[in-house]
Amino acid sequence: MIEHSLSLCYHNKVILAPMVRVGTLPMRLLALDYGADIVYCEELIDLKMLQCKRVVNEVLSTVDFVAPDDRVVFRTCKREQSRVVFQMGTSDAERALAVARLGGMGAALLSDPDKIEKILSTLVKGTHRPVTCKIRILPSLEDTLSLVKRIERTGIAAVAVHGRKREERPQHPVSCEVIRAIAETLSIPVIANGGSHDHIQEYLDIEDFRRATAASSVMLARAAMWNPSIFLKEGLRPLEEVMEKYIRYAVQYENHYTNTKYCLCQMLREQLESPQGRLLHAAQTSQEICEAFGLGAFYEETTRELNARRAEFLARTPEAVEEPAEDTSGIIKMAVKFDRRAYSPQITPKMCLLEWCRREKLAQPVYDTVQRPLDRLFCSVVTVAEQKYQSTLWDKSKKLAEQAAAIVCLRSRGLPEGRLGEESPSLHKRKREAPDQDLGGSRAQEPAVPGKLCKKPFVALGSGEESRLEGW
Fold first, then answer.
1. Mean pLDDT, residues 132-136
2. Suppose 457 and one of 135, 141, 190, 428 were both cysteines; which one would form an S-S bond, judging by CB atoms 3.0 to 4.6 Å apart?
3. Would you state the pLDDT for residue 391?
4. 49 and 143 belong to one structural domain
C-alpha cells in the first residue's frame, strides 16, 4: 500500500502540468528523473473514478485504480510518492470529496465562482491534504483578481494560473502581467503556467518566466511534453535518449501501447515522417514500438521477468485463480493467440466470423469472457450455432481473448480468419454496409490530435513531503 505525506510545498518548484493523455505514469517518472519537483497526472473525471476499484498490483509494485471494463484509469508507484498530484474533473462538491477520500486523493474541475468556492471549501474541510486550484484568466483583470481572492479564502495551498483566456489557444501570447498581478495580490503560492515555446525553450528560461510573472513556481506543459529533459539543469538531452528512457518505463509499467505511441508522437513532432516516425505510426503493440526503437530485446526480457513474477505470485495463491465458471464439456478448444501482426489492419477474426454467420443466416456470435483476478488475464468462449469454442491460452485483454476464441471457431470449421494473404472479397464489401458490427470488442483508444492539451480550470489535491529546489 502506498501512503502519502500530508504536506506538499509549492514554493520555488518546477512542475509537470496536467496534460490529457500525457501525464500517465511513464511520463511522470521521466519528469522526476530529469528534475521536476512535482508531477500532475492527467485530468480524470470524478464519476469515472467513483466506479473504479483500488487494486494493489503485486507484479508491478503499483497501486491501480481499475474501471469496471478492467481498464487502468490511474496507476501510481512508490517512486513518485510525495511528489504526485492527482487531478480530477468534477462539477459537484460531494462527488469531489468522495473521490478525495478514495485512496487519499482527489481533485475538481471548476466552472463558475460559486461552484469553485463550494467545491474547494468542501475539499479543504473534508480532507487533510493540500488542495490546489488551476485556472485560466478571465476577460478582465478585475474579475480575475476577484475570483482568485475568493479562491484563496477557501484555504487552498496554492493556485496555478494559465495566463490565457478560456478561448485562447497556444499561439496566443501568455499574459505574464496578469499572472504577476495575481501573485502580487495573493499571499498563497501562485504557480505560473503557459510559458512553453514563447518563453521557455530550455531550463534557464524557467527562472526568467518565474521572474516575469513574480510567481512562486512554474508549471510546464508543452515544453515538457516535447522533451521532458527540459527539467534538467544541465540542459536538454538528445531526444533519442529521452524517448528510449520513456519507452523503458512504459514497458516496465505495462503502459497501454496507444498511450505510449501518442506520447512518443508528441516528442517526434516534425520527425513523424522520418523512417523511425513511420515505424512508430505503423506500430500496433508495445513490442512493435520497442522494435521500432531498437529495444526489441529489452521488451522480450522485461516481459519474461513480469510473466515470471506473475507465475510466482499465482503459485503462492493458487486457490484464488478462477477458471471459466461454465461447464466446459462440449467446448472445442485450441491453444491459439491472436497476433495482430499476422492479420490485415482492416480485418480481424471476429469480423470474419461475424460475416460468415450473416452469410449463413445464423445468429451473431456471442462472447462470454472472464478474468482471473490475480494475473488479470482473460479467457473467452464464443458460441456459434449452439457450439462453444475457446482458446486454452489466457490473454492480457478482453479484446485479444475474444479474437482468439473466434480463431478457434474459424479454424475448426475450416474458414478464412483474415490472416495476411487470405482473401475474403465479401468482407471488404460488407464492412461499410454494416456499421453496427463488432470490430473486435470495445473500441481501442485512438490517438488524439497531437498537442491537444487540457485547457479548463482545475483544482487538484496533492500529496508529498516538502523538498527544496536547488539552483534557483
1. 91
2. 135
3. 93
4. yes
Distance CA(88)–CA(101), nearest Å, equals 13
Going by the DSSP 8-state scheme, the letter that residue 15 receives in this structure is E
For residue 389, the cross-strand partners are 332, 382
Using an 8 Å Cβ cutoff, are 159 and 188 in contact?
A: yes
Contact between 15 and 217 under an 8 Å Cβ cutoff? The reply is yes
Grid coordinates given for 352? 470474419
If you average pLDDT over residues 221-237, what whole number do you get?
97
- Which CATH number fits the domain that encloses residue 195? 3.20.20.70
- Are β-strands 332-334 and 387-391 bridged in parallel, bridged antiparallel, or unpaired? parallel
Domain that holds residue 291: 238-318
| Rounded-to-integer distance, Cα 356 and Cα 9, Å | 62
Cβ(362)–Cβ(310) below 8 Å: no
Kind and range of the H or E run holding 8:
none
- Give the cell for residue 462: 496533492
In the structure grid, which three cell numbers stand for residue 99, read together?
473521490
Per-residue pLDDT for 322 more than 60?
no
- Domain end point (choices 413, 428, 462): 413
Asked if 81 and 170 sit in the same domain, the reply is yes
Q: Give the strand pairing for 53-57 and 378-384.
A: unpaired
Q: Read off the C-alpha cell for 262.
A: 501518442
Same domain for 188 and 282: no
Residue 338 in any domain: the answer is yes
pTM as predicted? 0.71
Residues 109 and 181 in one domain: yes
Last residue of a domain, one of 362, 382, 413: 413
Q: How many domains does the chain have?
A: 3
CA distance 285 to 290: 9
